[in-house]
């Protein structure tokens, strides 16, 4: 880099008389013909800069043509021309923009700049692009600068701001200008002012610009640090960093000899075995660290191995030096301002992250609620343990997959899949109730077992039909993407859709149970089947319908879950334990309880994941442990039924 | 009460006789001590099956006799396996590391050997330190004690928490299942200290017995499993035949009434839960050296449910039922899933039993639950002419225990 700068500087000196006067692009190229023809990254810089600064209206077009192999030299007179392929030859345009006819390929030498030269041209072109009449060009230039900023961009960017007609782009340019100023401006006061102008802002780009300013490295110094060192703080060995780390820094800085490692010690001893002994100690007894140390000391005093630093010496060396955390940025005013700003951002960031976490937790809670709401009917209302509930969810998801195979329009297929999944799992639920469960109403433990048998069979059946690999269930494109509030807080549309679906189900459930004839009869049959029967209700029919309803809702939940989870035969068993937990923790027999349970489990899981982000398995483990303990405190769940409805 | 224990429980004698004959027959047919009619791998399968029968016995006691449908006993089984597996793996790796270091110029220090073992065992999960839970892995007696202590304490704490808050019935089943899932998920992590989903492997190589061929080892473990099964069977038969057995059966049938009679229901349940967890752990400690590998998938809740399936199919509430169920279903299962069962060609579709066995198992389990709650063990009742009252027809009074119409006619 330094060599390059020197080369550019030297070349600039040579060229300065040329650059001083306004010239046409053709003059500049002709004057530097040798450099242009054999262009290389080291030498071409001044020519490109002169061209860019020439004021020639064609300069931008010439530069971009050069980068795109659109510049050529006519062999007959050596004139530079813009060329473009036309038929067998080239269409020619002279450098002042006028048409110059055509020429066969053999008459023209095409200039082929290498990647380094193209890079230099691109940098030079930025100033033209920033003032390009085409808005998309200007926008692209801004994006390019933001992605990979360099000090060179600052001047052209500033120059382009006053002429910017578009208000949005103008604001973007001004923001980018301040970001570049705080990083690259040579004037310390200007940088501090730029940093302070961002007060209250918390954009990702700002943090990316600030973080390198406050990055520190730890260095070891004997005595005073070199002048101009921007010290963040002094580290003390033993408290801020371990003695071993401190000594390793000393070794790295060349201020102390390397410690003798166990491996080196062993090698040194092995190299000094004489007649089965090391310094008089039999080899066989060298099987403890202490005996090896003694043998090494003996060798050391005999002068046959180099002296090694002992623990005490290492500690003394560490104490004799200072360990400093040093900013890479030399200007203390800038680092202080940057640090203050980052601290205030940090606080706001934490608030935002809490909000984002809450959104995540809410979305997880709605997924659990969706998975559990069918159970809230079959288990919560009817008190039937259905271990095949998870398999009903899976059936719903596979129904969605099959419908998508037949109906290619994703929106339409989802609209078909939802009622169809309900119908399929409703039928499966009714069949299961009629064939199995109604014989076992008085033996709840055996219901658990029998439905488990069904669950095993259904899982294997799905495996036999659809195979073991995950099947895609694609969401319609209007559900792609996310609702983004700012850099941190955002939620994908699918999760919003699931949240809405969960709310809809809650409403439907409440309406059905509290406002319809069916709900009344369901509640009557659950409380006392014999009495309900004597009032003219058919308990068999009601049980069948209720169970079918619970299963059908599981099917719809399956379609929703399949949209963001992979559809496999194990889809259901992933949710079954959590679903039961949701119902049990919330309080059996109360839909608000299930909602509370889902919110609690969702929040808890996200909270634990936030404490230990690397490990979702651990989060699930601790969540289950917490639930087991929670049931100690409230054995009947968050919202417990009281009185006769509570049963036993 | 003059009749002896065996006279009151003739099934114990028959069971021991059958087990002894079976053991003798297999020994005489084995490669190591007999006519080499059965392969070493089949002897291992039979030995493992005996261990499964042992854990089924534990399940039968806790479910069939006390009425706690625990979906966590396979977790205790696997934990027992993990505990013995830690010693097997540590001691075996120690032998290998010492052998590898014997060629070096200096004799290895204890620290170097430990380091070598740690690198060898934990290289797969990217660690090189022995986690603290391996502190006792060097000592066989300590690990044997842990086989009993770890699952026993877990069961004690979990049972105490669950029973004191009066969690019963299906709620308890779901809670035990959650415990199993939590344990499995925990062990699946790489930093759990038990090699994550790699599990422990090479357990079939018994340290110090490197020269003994696997054929001999397999028959030794077969004997040990048979001995364990016989001893536990006799012990449990004795436990359930006395007053203790009457109390726990009463808890199964009506917990409230037993509590009102002044028995400490929770203490009885806790004792049985912990005892069966320990038995399950011992069964696991015998099983996994024969299986050779253990990983967290063995703890999955599904395994515990299969255990319940075995006991239900065999016939719960009678000890020989559990043994028959476990042996029958697990052997049948390995026959079907091992690809040895002939496929059935239906013309349009070929029924491949590897794919369809699970469906057959699930459905037959449903049928057993519905129509034969006594399971295979019920056949013995038929032989003896015992018959349950016909409880069909309409109830003649309110409440679950009321006489049924058909019952009253008889």
Task: Please describe what this structure looks like.
The complex is a heterodimer of chains A (648) and B (410). Chain A is of the alpha+beta class and 648 residues long. Chain A folds into 4 domains: 2-130, no CATH class; 135-214, no CATH class; 216-327, no CATH class; 356-571, no CATH class. Chain A has 26 helices and 12 strands. Chain A has a 5-stranded antiparallel β-sheet with strand order 4-3-2-1-5. In chain A, strands 6-10-7 form a 3-stranded antiparallel β-sheet. A two-stranded antiparallel sheet of chain A has the order 8-9. In chain A, β1 (71-74) and β2 (80-86) form a beta hairpin. In chain A, α12 (243-252) packs across α15, α16 crosses α24 (571-586) and α21 (517-527) packs across α23. Chain B is 67% helix and 2% strand. Chain B is built from 16 helices and 4 strands. With 410 residues, chain B is mostly helical. At the A-B interface, α13, α19, α24 and α26 of A face α5, α6, α7, α12 and α14 of B.
Structural class, judged by helices and strands of chain B?
A: mainly alpha
| Total separate domains of chain B | 1
Fraction in helix of chain B: 55-70%
Query: Could you give the distance between the termini of chain B?
Result: 32 Å
Oligomeric description of these chains: heterodimer
Indicate the low-confidence ranges of chain B by residue numbers: none
- How many helices of chain B does DSSP assign? 16
pLDDT averaged over residues of chain A:
81
Determine the fraction of residues in helical runs of chain A and give it as a percent range.
55-70%
- The low-pLDDT segments of chain A are 11-21
**Shape by Cα distribution of chain A:** extended
Strand element count of chain A? 12
Main pleated-sheet profile of chain B: 2 strands, antiparallel
Mean pLDDT across the residues of chain B is 86
Strand content of chain A: 5-15%
Give the count of helical stretches of chain A. Answer: 26
Radius of gyration of chain B: 24 Å
Fraction of residues in β-strands of chain B: under 5%
């Amino acid at each position: 880099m330094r060599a390059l700068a020197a080369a550019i500087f030297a070349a600039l000196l040579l060229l300065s008389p040329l650059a001083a006067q306004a010239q046409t692009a053709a003059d500049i190229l002709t004057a530097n013909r040798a450099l242009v023809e054999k262009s290389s990254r080291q030498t071409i810089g001044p020519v490109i800069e002169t061209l860019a600064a020439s004021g020639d209206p064609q300069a931008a077009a010439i530069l971009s043509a050069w980068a795109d192999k659109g510049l050529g030299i006519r062999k007959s007179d050596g004139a530079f021309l813009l060329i473009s392929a036309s038929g067998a030859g080239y269409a020619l345009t002279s450098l002042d923009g006028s048409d110059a006819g055509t020429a066969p390929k053999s008459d023209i030498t095409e200039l082929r700049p290498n990647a380094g030269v193209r890079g230099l041209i691109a940098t030079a072109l930025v100033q033209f692009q920033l003032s390009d009449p085409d808005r998309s060009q200007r926008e692209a230039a801004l994006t390019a600068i933001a992605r990979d900023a360099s000090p060179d961009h600052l001047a052209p960017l500033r120059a382009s701001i006053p002429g910017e007609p578009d208000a949005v782009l103008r604001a973007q340019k001004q923001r980018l200008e301040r970001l570049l100023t705080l990083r690259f401006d040579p004037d310390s006061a200007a940088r501090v002012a730029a940093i302070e102008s961002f007060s209250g802002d918390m954009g990702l780009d700002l943090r990316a610009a600030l973080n390198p300013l406050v990055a520190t490295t730890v260095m070891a110094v004997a005595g005073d640090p070199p002048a101009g060192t921007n010290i963040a703080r002094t580290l003390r060995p033993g408290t801020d960093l371990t003695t071993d780390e401190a000594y390793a820094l000393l070794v790295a800085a060349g201020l102390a000899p390397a410690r003798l490692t166990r491996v080196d010690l062993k090698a040194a001893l092995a190299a000094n075995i004489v007649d089965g002994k090391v310094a008089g100690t039999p080899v066989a007894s060298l099987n403890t660290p202490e005996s090896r140390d003694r043998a090494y000391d003996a060798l050391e005093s005999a002068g046959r191995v180099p002296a090694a630093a002992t623990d005490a010496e290492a500690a003394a060396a560490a104490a004799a030096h200072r360990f400093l955390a040093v900013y890479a940025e030399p200007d203390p005013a800038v680092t202080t301002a940057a640090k203050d700003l980052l601290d205030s951002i940090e606080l706001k960031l934490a608030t935002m992250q809490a909000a984002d976490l809450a959104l995540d937790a809410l979305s997880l809670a709605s997924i659990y609620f969706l998975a559990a709401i069918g159970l809230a009917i079959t288990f919560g209302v009817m008190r039937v343990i259905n271990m095949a509930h998870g398999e009903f969810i899976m059936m719903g998801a596979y129904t969605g997959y099959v419908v998508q195979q037949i109906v290619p329009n994703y929106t339409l297929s989802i609209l078909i899949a939802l009622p169809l999944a309900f119908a399929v799992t409703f039928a499966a639920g009714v069949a299961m109730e009629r064939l199995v469960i109604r014989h076992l109403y008085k033996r709840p433990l055996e219901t658990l077992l029998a439905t488990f048998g069904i669950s095993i069979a259904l899982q294997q059946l799905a495996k036999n039909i659809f195979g073991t690999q995950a099947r895609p269930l694609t969401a319609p494109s209007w559900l792609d993407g996310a609702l983004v509030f700012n850099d941190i807080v955002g939620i994908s549309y699918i999760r919003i859709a699931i949240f809405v679906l969960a709310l809809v189900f809650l409403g439907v459930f409440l309406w059905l149970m509290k406002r319809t004839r069916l709900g009344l009869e369901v509640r009557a049959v659950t409380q006392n089947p014999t009495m309900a029967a004597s009032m003219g209700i058919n308990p068999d029919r009601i049980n069948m319908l209720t169970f079918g309803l619970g299963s059908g809702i599981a099917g719809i939940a399956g379609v929703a879950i399949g949209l963001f989870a992979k559809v496999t035969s194990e889809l259901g068993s992933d949710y079954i334990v959590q679903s039961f937990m949701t119902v049990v923790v919330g309080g059996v027999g109360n839909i608000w309880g299930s909602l509370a349970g889902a919110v609690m489990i969702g929040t808890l899981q996200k909270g634990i994941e936030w404490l230990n982000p690397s490990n979702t398995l651990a989060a699930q483990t601790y969540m289950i442990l917490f639930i087991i303990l929670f049931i100690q405190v409230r054995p009947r769940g968050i919202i417990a039924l009281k009185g006769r409805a509570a049963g036993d | 009460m003059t009749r002896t224990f065996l006279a009151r429980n003739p099934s114990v004698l028959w069971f021991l006789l059958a087990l002894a004959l079976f053991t003798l027959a297999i020994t005489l047919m084995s490669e190591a001590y007999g006519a080499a009619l059965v392969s070493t791998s089949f002897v291992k399968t039979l030995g493992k099956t005996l261990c499964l029968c042992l854990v089924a016995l534990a399940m039968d006691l806790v479910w069939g006799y006390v009425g706690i449908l625990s979906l966590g006993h396979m977790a205790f089984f696997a934990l027992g396996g993990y505990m013995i597996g830690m010693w097997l793996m540590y001691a075996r790796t120690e032998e290998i590391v010492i052998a590898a270091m014997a060629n070096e110029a200096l004799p290895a220090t204890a620290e170097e050997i430990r380091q070598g073992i740690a690198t060898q065992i934990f290289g797969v999960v990217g660690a090189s330190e022995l986690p603290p839970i391996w502190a006792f892995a060097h000592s066989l007696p300590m690990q044997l004690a842990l086989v009993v202590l770890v699952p026993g304490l877990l069961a004690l704490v979990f049972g105490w928490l669950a029973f004191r808050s009066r969690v019963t019935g299906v709620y308890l089943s779901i809670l035990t299942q959650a415990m199993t899932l939590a344990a499995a998920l925990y062990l699946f992590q790489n930093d759990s200290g038990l090699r994550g989903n790699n599990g422990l492997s090479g357990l079939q190589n018994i340290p110090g017995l490197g020269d003994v061929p696997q054929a001999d080892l397999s028959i030794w473990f077969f004997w040990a499993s048979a001995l364990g099964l016989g001893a536990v069977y006799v012990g449990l038969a004795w436990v359930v035949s006395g007053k203790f057995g009457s109390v726990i059966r009463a808890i199964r049938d009506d917990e409230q009434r037993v509590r009102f009679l002044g028995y400490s229901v929770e203490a009885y349940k806790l004792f049985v839960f912990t005892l069966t967890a320990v038995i399950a752990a011992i069964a696991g400690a015998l099983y996994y050296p024969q299986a050779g590998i253990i990983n967290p998938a063995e703890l999955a809740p599904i395994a515990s449910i299969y255990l319940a399936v075995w006991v239900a199919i065999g016939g719960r509430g009678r000890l020989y039922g559990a043994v028959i169920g476990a042996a029958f279903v697990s052997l049948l299962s390995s026959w079907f899933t091992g690809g040895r069962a002939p496929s059935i060609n239906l013309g349009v579709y070929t029924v491949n039993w590897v794919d369809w066995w699970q469906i057959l198992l699930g459905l037959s389990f449903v049928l057993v639950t519905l129509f034969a709650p006594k399971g295979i063990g019920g056949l013995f009742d038929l032989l003896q002419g015992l018959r349950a009252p016909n409880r069909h027809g309409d109830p003649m009074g309110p409440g679950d225990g009321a006489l049924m119409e058909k019952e009253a006619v008889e």
